[in-house]
Specification:
215 residues; alpha+beta; Arc Repressor Mutant, subunit A; 60s Ribosomal Protein L30, Chain: A; 4-stranded mixed β-sheet; 4 strands; elongated
Length: 215
């Protein structure tokens, strides 16, 4: 589509003054890629650069604020849904799963579900309930094990793969703790961090636990 030369000249003039591509796109009703092409040869002076930086920072602040508000609204909705479910049709397995996570899981939803423990039975129980109560994508599991110098990485990887029923190929590289000189703990299989890549699921688990606890 052909645009008037006057529009291009106006875009270049405003770009010289430090207008962002987003501002120009909105002002002239054209794609950002189009105004980028029109203004590709513009070299801004210091005043223009300062204005552009101010616009970008303001935009980043607004974007971050909107994102926080959206996240808070989602968390509030999950909490209200969980409270209603607990009151009307409680799923006790889901509540137990959420409470286990509340006690041993990550306290922030950023990074998804992260559950760390050294007790194979607790890990096995948590995953059994998680799989039973939620629709999961098994490919999103990426566990990691922490072992001591006296452990065999291969043996411990086999052990935790069987406990979690997660393919060994999905495990990240084992972390071997430095030798502290402490005695060998018999039957200690190391520690595992079960990571599941879903911030949404982490928020749901915490919302259920908070609702059950009456927060």
């Amino acid at each position: 589509m052909a645009y008037p030369i006057s529009m291009r000249h106006a875009a270049v003039e405003l770009r010289n003054k430090g207008y962002s591509l987003k501002e120009l796109s909105k002002r002239f009703g054209v794609a950002k890629s189009t105004v980028a092409l029109w203004t590709k040869d513009v070299v801004m002076d210091k005043n223009a650069e300062q204005r552009l930086l101010t616009v970008i920072k303001r935009g980043q602040f607004i974007s971050a604020r909107n994102k926080r508000a959206k996240t808070k609204a989602t968390e509030d909705r999950y909490f209200n849904e969980a409270r209603e479910e607990i009151q009307l049709r409680p799923n006790y397995n889901k509540i137990i799963c959420a409470m286990i996570y509340w006690c041993e899981g990550a306290k922030s939803a950023k990074g998804g579900v992260a559950f760390t423990n050294s007790d194979p039975n607790l890990i096995r129980t948590f995953l059994k309930l998680l799989r039973e109560c939620f629709v999961l994508d098994e490919k999103k599991f990426h566990p990691g094990i922490h072992i001591h110098s006296y452990h065999s990485p291969e043996k411990q990887l086999d052990f935790w793969s069987k406990v979690t029923d997660i393919d060994k190929q999905q495990f990240i590289k084992p972390y071997r703790k430095p030798n502290t000189g402490k005695r060998i703990r018999e039957n200690y299989q190391g520690c595992i961090r079960v990571q599941y890549g879903s911030n949404d699921l982490a928020r749901r688990l915490m919302a259920i636990a908070k609702a059950f606890l009456g927060q």
